[in-house]
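Feature request disguised as a bug report, sorry. It would help if multi-protein outputs had a clear separator. Right now it looks like this:
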Amino acid sequence: MHLVVAIAQLLLAAVFAVSGIAKLADRAGSRRSLVEFGLPEPIARPASVLLPLGELAVAGALVLALTAWWGALGALALLAVFTVAVAVNLARGRRPDCHCFGRLTSTPIGWQTVARNLLLMAAAGLVVSRGPHGVLGIGTLVATLPPVARGATITAVGAAIPLALVGWIVFLLWRQQGRLLLRIEALERNRPVAASPAAGLPMGAPAPEFRVKTLAGEERTLAALRAGDRPLLLTFGDPKCGPCTALLPRIARWQQDLGDRLRIVVVSRGSHGANEQKALRHGLSDVVLQDDFEVAELYRVAGTPGAVLVTADGKIGSPVAAGEPAIADLVAYAAAGPGNPVPWPPGQNGRPAPAAGPRAPRSRVGDRVPPVTLTSMDGTRVSLSDSLAGDADTLLIFWNPYCGFCQRMLGDLRAWEASRPADAPRITLISVGSVDANRALGLQAPVLLDEEFAVALQFGAPGTPSAVLVDAHGRIASPIAQGAAAVLELARPREPVAS
């Protein structure tokens, strides 16, 4: 029986020694974990040092003859406190990171954590049940063994310590290497997401319904989140994602400054405590939790931070914006509203994107069409002035297949094409986006690609949809029309402009 008790002592001593050392090596993480478990910050700061020191004291006491029983009693008490804290948080629906062994196993708690602690409590109870005088120190137990067994035990313990140390280092290196490989794989997988404006669900498709919980534990659906006449911006994050954390102060400002025009909701994952702490620290007003990545996967968001716009009528209003600059641009685009459109894709941090190089003077009524070359849908380079040559006026519509306002106008434009009056201007679209996205519009009008929005800016177009009329002589015959109603009005028949 002495041998069984000694094994229990060694097990407990090893567990508490590793736990104490790991916590001291990551005191900041230990403090955060204590706060997530519900300990006030002023108490968590000293507790993050006192707790691991107490665990090391328990580990040391368990191996000495005079203190082994007291060490086991201390281990039992600490394990009981840990178990109660875990159970209370689980009962409240919270799953903070355990951080039981520092950075080695910083994972959300679960009932398996309770089960593990109960097994360790059973081992500590076995040692305590022997009484203060019935527990031998490890050294005393080894000294009572026969010489051969004593030598074998000392050799085994002596070999186990460096082997365990080497194994621990190998394990850490393996985990680090694994994380690097996963990050490289994720970067390779997500690289097209940042580069392709078509990432995500199709524009105009119904936004997928979902159920999430607020930090207060209340259930929310997509329908509840988009209640009202404002568009909804879903921003996807993770409390352990550095770029996500860096973006949170800006999201808080957007929520406060743009709340009357745009609802911005942070859809996060991870522990309740970590998200609650970040929400309080940065002043976030709208945070909901997905269990893992289920909502992000519904919206085809492959990385964090990412964002998707949902229109007021529950449709997909944008491709996925990946990274802080793209999300800032999407916020500016969504908050501008139909009366004040901004270009898409816009420039950095919501400012209108400039043309490459020095900005060309904006064209005015009476000016000739700028001498620019664009790409047709079949990939050939086309001179804009040559494409407009003929005996009829042309309405140049500056377009974006991913623009929610353009999507709303698309049905009217198709109907206009189907019943176009004989004396109405012909239409040419100057559009951003991919060939496939523009072909999917189903329009009869020719489409010329202006990937950087540079040509549109030369005409003075502030965003999409907008349009300008060009007469049969290649001269600009109207000011820029902004918005669907103004563009359609400009498409009506008109008197030819004198040359």
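(second protein starts here, but nothing in the output says so)
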Amino acid sequence: MFQIRATAVFSAAHAIVIRGEREPLHGHDWRVTACLEGPELDADGLLWDFHALEADLGAVIGPWRNANLNESRTFREVNPTAEEVARVVGVGLAAALRSRLDRYPQTAWSQGLRVAYVEVTEAPGCVAVYRPG
């Protein structure tokens, strides 16, 4: 099994609800690491294109840059915890990956390439991880 990872950082605020009480609005420099994995490399010796992964990760988190997550469409009905941010990024990346793979149906890339995990660091030492499936 091979893996590649890409990391992006964005600044955003949130105010999550904990046991029924909303905490004060505050900001973070969120660090998001996305990992793809698959059993095979393509003819060029690549698991996947780093540029494509970086572009897709940037597209998912782009609307949240310098924003209040609570006011974003994504989190209007979802508590914007680090765990939920990781899940939303993972689901968004999986959809982007499926869309890209549809263009390459007969390549090594189509053989089991998937999102392995997404890590979201909300503050130093505080990491949430989402693993699909």
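Even a blank line would do. Unrelated, but nice: Strands lie at 2-14, 17-18, 21-22, 26-38, 67-68, 114-123, 126-130.
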